[in-house]
Every structure is written in C-alpha cells, then in structure tokens.
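User: Hi! I have a protein structure encoded as tokens and I'd like to know what sequence might fold into it. I'm fairly new to this, so please keep things simple.
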C-alpha cells in the first residue's frame, strides 16, 4: 500500500491544531481575507540585514494574515530616504507598511530639507528585533578591551582611525558615542556600506569600528577580526565570552541596532493591533526564530505603545550624538 495512505495519530493532531490556528487567525484578521496584498517597503537594498529579517518571516506572516500575500518591496536610494517617503506617503489603510532601522531616526541630523518627520509622520507598530553591535578592531590592533582602547586614543589621538558605513549612519554614531563618553579622539573614515569597511579592517587599513554582529559573524569565527566589547545591555547568548561595555566599566555605553515595523501616519488602532498580533505569531514560529538566531538577531516584538516611545527617545539620542560629532544636514 502506498505510504501516503497511512496517517498517524500525531499527524491528525497536528492537522487539527493547524485548523484551529487557521480559524483563530481568520476570526481575528477579517481584513486578511481580502484579495489585496500587504506591501512592506524596505528603504534598503536586497541582501541587507533588514531585508533578511523581513524575508525570514514573510511566509509565516502571510499565514498569520489568513493567507493574504506579503510583498517585500526594496526601495533603496538616497540613504534610505526614498523608501521611507514611500512609507509615510502611503494611504493609512494597512495595505502599505515598512521595515525601518536606526537610520530612520537619524535622517533629520544628516539630510537637509527632509520631507517627512521620522516620528510624527509614522504609526509605530513593533520593534521586531535587535541586532547586537560590537566594537571590533583589526586582528593585530594593540588594544584588547575598551580600557586599553581608551588609553591608546588618549595617548595618541591622531594615530588611530575608525571606520563606518557612512557619515551619520548608526555605525558612525555608535563609535562617536564611545569617543564622547571617554573624551577621546580618533579619525573617522566613512565607507559606502559595511562590506568595504569590513574588507579594509581585515586588510589593516582601518583600526577599529562598531559593526553589527550579522555582518561579521563569519569573520569573528575565523579570527580575522578582534572583538573588544559588545555594545549590548546583556551578554550575547551565542557569544557569551564577549564582555559587554557595561561589564568593562562603561555603564552608559549601550547601543543596539533595531528593526521596526511602521506604517504611515493615521493607521487605525484596529489595524495596528491586528498587525502586531500577526507579527507576534510570525516571528515566534520555530523556523523564523531559527533563521533570526543564525543571523545573530534577537526577536523582541515590543508592542505599539512601547515602540512609539522608543523611536521618539532614539530620535533625541541620535540628534545629540550627531550634533556633538559636528554633523550638519547635507
């Protein structure tokens, strides 16, 4: 008899649970039964860290929305401004949302005549996840921890440089935060993206910098870069031996990459609540959790109210950092 005719008790239970879950989702997401898709604009190119985060959960999110199609729409350009304009200018009907990162709140500090307000012109839905940021250095750098780095920079402020993925990016301002906290100086070398920065740090042209874990995980495991500290509030589960800045005596040096789902201004509370519930369902699926862990991300799923306050506080934080770093909108 063909194998496919046999149905185990476990299979029956799984199918029953799936049916219950599907009924629950259909009941809680009546709008999801429409034929229209939900489009998520990403103000970044395909292959970026945020792109991987969005696509990891797209199928699970579609299922959570009762089968409604989920479309990931990459709209890079102008450092992310173009794609963000698409989010804030969309109709507030829940059909167009977006994934944004720390750079979203940095725009006013680096972009002149910005056509939108990153706080007032969006509807926050959830901080989906965080990406650990690490303060790293070339493999033969003479410092092995933050205290030694601070001592080197104080002794020879014009000797060492640090790189970033570009002026005013989260990686730039995260490094500037360390310099401002320690009263030290280091020459900034901006790059057009993380890839060239990592390559030159491995090659010895760049001394140190702050980089997100997902971008350098393989380089760390291969010993091509040296980690001086994590900038996270707690040790990283997958790298427990990396000391945090807090553990090294720098309690105020905490900065993480984050990714949030937002919509245009004016989304109804029902739409916000429904999408937040769908995101929770999607990002708590084992396959999605596994994918996020492999990327080095931590699923957070903070609720809408928290997300609104957090994004506003991040806007203020990076505004101060940018001004202290001497950045002016260009």
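Assistant: Happy to help. Inverse folding works backwards from shape to sequence: for each of the 330 positions I chose a residue that suits the local structure. Here it is:
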């Amino acid at each position: 008899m063909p194998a496919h005719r046999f149905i185990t008790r476990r299979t029956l239970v799984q199918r029953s649970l799936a049916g219950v879950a599907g009924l629950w989702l259909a009941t809680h997401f009546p709008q999801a039964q429409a034929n229209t898709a939900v489009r998520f604009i990403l103000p970044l190119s395909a292959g970026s860290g945020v792109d991987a985060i969005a696509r990891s959960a797209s199928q699970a999110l579609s299922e959570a929305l009762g089968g409604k199609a989920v479309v990931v729409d990459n709209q890079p350009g102008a450092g992310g401004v173009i794609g963000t304009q698409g989010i804030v200018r969309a109709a507030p009907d829940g059909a167009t949302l977006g994934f944004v990162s720390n750079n979203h709140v940095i725009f006013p500090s680096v972009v002149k005549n910005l056509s939108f307000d990153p706080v007032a012109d969006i509807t926050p839905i959830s901080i989906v996840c965080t990406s650990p940021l690490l303060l790293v250095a070339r493999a033969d750098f003479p410092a092995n921890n933050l205290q030694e780095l601070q001592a080197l920079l104080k002794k020879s402020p014009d000797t060492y440089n640090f790189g970033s993925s570009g002026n005013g990016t989260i990686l730039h301002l995260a490094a500037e935060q360390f310099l401002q906290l320690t009263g030290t100086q280091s020459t900034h070398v901006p790059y057009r993206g993380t890839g060239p920065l990592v390559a030159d740090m491995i090659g010895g042209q760049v001394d140190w910098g702050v980089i997100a874990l997902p971008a350098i995980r393989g380089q760390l495991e291969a010993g091509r870069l040296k980690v001086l500290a994590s900038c996270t509030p707690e040790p990283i589960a997958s790298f427990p031996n990396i000391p945090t800045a807090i553990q090294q005596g720098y309690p105020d040096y905490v900065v993480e990459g984050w990714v949030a789902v937002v919509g245009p201004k004016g989304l109804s509370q029902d739409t916000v609540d429904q999408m937040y519930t769908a995101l929770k369902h999607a990002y708590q699926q084992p396959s999605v959790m596994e994918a996020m862990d492999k990327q080095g991300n931590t699923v957070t799923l903070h609720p809408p109210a928290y997300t609104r306050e957090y994004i506003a506080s991040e806007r203020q934080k990076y505004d101060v950092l940018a001004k202290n770093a001497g950045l002016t909108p260009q």
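A useful reference point when you look it over: The CA atoms of residues 64 and 278 lie 5 Å apart. Feel free to ask if any position seems puzzling.
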